[in-house]
Write a structure and sequence with these properties.
Radius of gyration: 21 Å
Number of strands: 15
Largest sheet: 6 strands, antiparallel
Structural class: alpha+beta
Number of helices: 6
Distance between the termini: 54 Å
Mean pLDDT: 88
């Protein structure tokens, strides 16, 4: 929380170009401008619902922070990933280089697609697919909603979406190696393959986490540990 002893330069160092909560609504903090010669009194410009507003009472401004997680940055029912280069499933990772920022921003947060390592490795002929996405207010709002499809809904939509988040810890993506299997990834990375009735886990350290997820969400699949030679 900013204090009144901060100068506007102090405030901008911590809050400028971040996304924060103002009266429990997500806003983009453009920055502070002084309204006194000393710089201790200042006003702050934020963008709320596409409108710029000025605030002076900073008690209602709160940090907005997220842990590393998968989320659906766009509606899995509407998006066409090949056209937009935006997969529904996205991965949020924290960048430790700019921890002086008090709230989430493009300097301390990286948004990527779970499928991008595959696109990069196999050199698919997909023009200008971005290695990471620019954080925006729409993504922040999707993070706040934290909505996920059922497993069957995700499988049915994945051919259009390319990648879909199943939960904060798991996502599925199209496979370049099989037309009837999907790639399963955790925050560790790609850990196995998924079908309509099985999770085939190649990363032994993820087996328990996957089993817990399947039981918790009551997903109608059998979890199998397999070796790369299988």
């Amino acid at each position: 929380m900013p204090t009144y002893r901060d100068t506007f330069e102090d405030f901008n160092l911590k809050w400028q170009n971040t996304y924060a909560l103002y009266k429990n609504q997500a806003v983009f903090v453009q920055g502070a401008e002084p309204i006194s010669e000393e710089g201790n009194d200042f006003e702050v410009s934020v963008v709320l619902n596409a409108q710029k507003i000025i605030i002076k009472d900073l008690n209602n401004l709160e940090p907005l922070l997220f842990n590393s997680q998968y989320f659906n940055g766009v509606d899995w029912n509407l998006n066409d990933s090949l056209k937009t280069k935006l997969t529904s499933g996205m991965l949020l990772s924290r960048n430790p280089r700019r921890q002086n920022k008090r709230s989430i921003c493009g300097e301390n947060t990286i948004i990527t697609s779970p499928i991008y390592p595959i696109i990069e490795k196999y050199h698919f002929n997909i023009i200008a697919w971005p290695p990471c996405y620019t954080l925006n207010l729409s993504m922040i709002q999707q993070l706040q909603k934290c909505q996920f499809p059922t497993y069957m809904e995700a499988l049915q939509a994945c051919h259009k979406q390319i990648s879909i988040a199943l939960s904060p810890n798991f996502a599925i993506s199209l496979s370049p190696m099989s037309s009837d299997r999907f790639l399963l990834s955790s925050l560790f990375g790609f850990i196995g393959e998924a079908t309509y009735n099985e999770f085939l886990i190649y990363h032994q350290g993820s087996l328990q986490e996957v089993n817990d997820f399947v039981r918790r969400e009551n997903i109608p699949v059998i979890v199998k540990e397999v070796s790369y030679a299988t």
